[in-house]
Design a protein that fits this description.
By secondary structure, the protein is an alpha/beta fold. It has helices at residues 2-24, 32-37, 40-57, 73-82, 133-146, 161-174, 185-196, 211-220, 232-249, 273-283, 305-308, 338-347, 349-352, 359-394, 421-427, 431-446, 477-494, and strands at 103-107, 110-113, 116-120, 179-182, 202-206, 223-227, 256-261, 286-290, 318-322, 332-336, 400-402, 414-419, 448-449, 467-470. Helix content is 47%, strand content 13%. Belongs to the class-II pyridoxal-phosphate-dependent aminotransferase family.
């Protein structure tokens, strides 16, 4: 009985479906074809015409006026008087406000500041080329011939013969077939990195890389991973982690880059570049070295950290450096793999969109490069002696910690003096103010000018306040001893 009822229900449903299809299917009265064949399009057109007429006859929208009474002049004056603007940036502490100083003359590693002759250890004048007459005379002659500007970017009426000469001489000095110069040093590395990597690529960087490197990595939009500062075991751990994730995700091949500095700007450290090179070869990565502070300082001839560890420019794919350090000019340059360096002229934003280096700064850098080539081998041993002596004496100052590992002891002229851990724990957030007072005391009482670096709030890693000292090959042993004595006296007087 139940089966026969089910069969009847199914038959009824099938009949209903057939009747519905006869109406809406081809030939049915509700099928669009039937509708159009019987002048149904006139209905659609009439409907659209009616909508257009309706919209055409509508009045423009006018907001209804508010019923509030207008303010009187007295009320407006009261509101203005009560208004207090919100600060655009956090308020600076008094210790954070830099003391304005006026430099009237520079004589080698000395300067006349506020009418006082002081030992200038705040400028990266490592080989004292900034005080030699040859670059200055070359710059004066270039101004007389070319003026002070270059009139545009390199690719648009901004290339002068002195640019090409400087690039040729830098390439020859570094042992590379090609070189590209930039008009601003911080824009060099920040332009090179995005031209070498994009969102599909991988970048492994030391956690202590400077702000310019961080900005270049950010602009590249690549997948970024950091390893502990100068820790090769952690570098391998990060590389293994990245390789495992790539295998798991079955990602296509991409460009991979390891970034370190020749001398780290925030610590004065030197990386074990030979170990970094061996690791990058094992994992098939490219290597980029920022030699901004190590160019003209490390290596037998001053070619930088790569030369210090016996590497050639062909071993490292990309080398970038500033010309505002040893060369005493402005701008930066990039050497390395010819394809990568040539690509900067099309994709490096700092090269393509910035006005080119003023010609007189190019000739000043070129003349300083000639001095480095001729006198560097004689000056560099003296600089290393100064580094060893100064660090040995500064390490004996109580309450002060000298940054830098064993590789930096006799090689790095960039010295950061931070508070010892016990002192830093006692003073807490007053560390910057105390360090600044030490710098002021050294200037006022001992005639030694050092700097207290400020860092951007956008830095990925917070850096402890420090006295930054740039040592110079022109310093005498008496000046080195005087520096240590000045730091000792300032620490004794100011630190708790």
């Amino acid at each position: 009985m139940a089966a026969s009822q089910m069969t009847g229900v199914l038959r009824t449903a099938v009949d209903a479906a057939r009747q519905f299809w006869d109406i809406v299917g081809p030939g049915g009265k509700l099928h669009p074809q039937y509708f159009l064949e019987n002048r149904g399009h006139l209905v659609v057109e009439s409907l659209l015409l009616g909508i257009i007429v309706y919209l055409f006859l509508q009045q423009a929208f006018k907001p209804k006026p508010r019923g509030d009474d207008p303010l009187s002049d007295k009320e407006m004056d009261a509101l203005v008087a009560e208004w207090r603007p919100e600060p655009l940036v956090p308020r600076m502490e008094e210790a954070e406000r830099p003391r304005e100083r006026v430099v009237t003359a520079v004589h080698g590693h000395h300067a006349i500041v506020d009418g006082k002759r002081v030992l200038n250890l705040a400028s990266a004048n490592f080989l004292n080329f900034g005080g030699m007459p040859e670059p200055m005379e070359a710059a004066r002659a270039t101004v007389a011939r070319y003026g002070v500007g270059s009139c545009g970017p390199r690719g648009f009426y901004g290339t002068i013969d002195v640019h090409l000469q400087l690039e040729a001489h830098l390439a020859e000095f570094m042992g590379c077939p090609i070189c590209t110069i930039f008009s601003f040093d911080i824009a060099t590395i920040a332009s090179v990195i995005p031209a070498c990597a994009n969102r599909k690529d991988i970048i492994i960087m030391d956690e202590r890389c400077n702000y310019a490197v961080q900005q270049g990595v950010l602009l590249s939009r690549a997948s970024v991973h950091s390893f502990k500062h100068n820790d090769m075991e952690d570098l391998q751990r990060v590389l293994e982690k990245v390789e495992a994730k790539e295998r798991a995700d079955k990602k296509p091949l991409c460009r991979k880059l390891i970034i370190v500095e020749g001398i780290f700007a925030t610590t004065g450290d030197i990386p074990p570049l030979d170990e970094v090179f061996a690791i990058k070869e094992r994992y098939k990565y490219r290597l980029l070295v920022d030699e901004s502070l190590s160019f003209g300082v490390l290596g037998p001839n001053g070619r930088g950290c790569c030369e210090q560890f016996g590497l050639t420019a062909g071993d490292v794919e990309v080398i970038c450096a500033s010309m505002s350090g040893t060369l005493g000019s402005i701008g930066g340059f990039c050497v390395g793999d010819p394809a990568v360096v040539e690509h900067q002229r099309l994709a490096g934003s700092g090269y393509v969109f910035s006005a080119s280096l003023p010609p007189f700064l190019g000739t000043a850098a070129d003349e300083a490069l000639a001095l480095l080539r001729d006198r560097g081998p004689m000056l560099l041993p003296r600089l290393r002696h100064i580094c060893s002596t100064a660090r040995a004496q500064l390490e004996k100052v109580p309450g002060i910690l000298v940054s830098g590992g064993p590789l930096s002891t006799g090689n790095s002229p960039v010295v950061h003096l931070t508070l010892a851990p016990a002192v830093a724990e006692r003073v807490g957030h007053q560390a910057f103010a105390l360090i600044s007072r030490m710098a002021e005391r050294m200037f006022d009482c001992d005639g030694i000018m050092v700097s207290v670096p400020l860092y951007s709030c956008l830095e990925k890693m917070k850096t402890a306040p420090s006295l930054r000292i740039f040592l110079s090959a022109a310093m005498t042993d008496e000046e080195v001893s005087g520096l240590a004595a000045a730091v000792r006296a300032a620490a004794k007087e100011i630190l708790p």
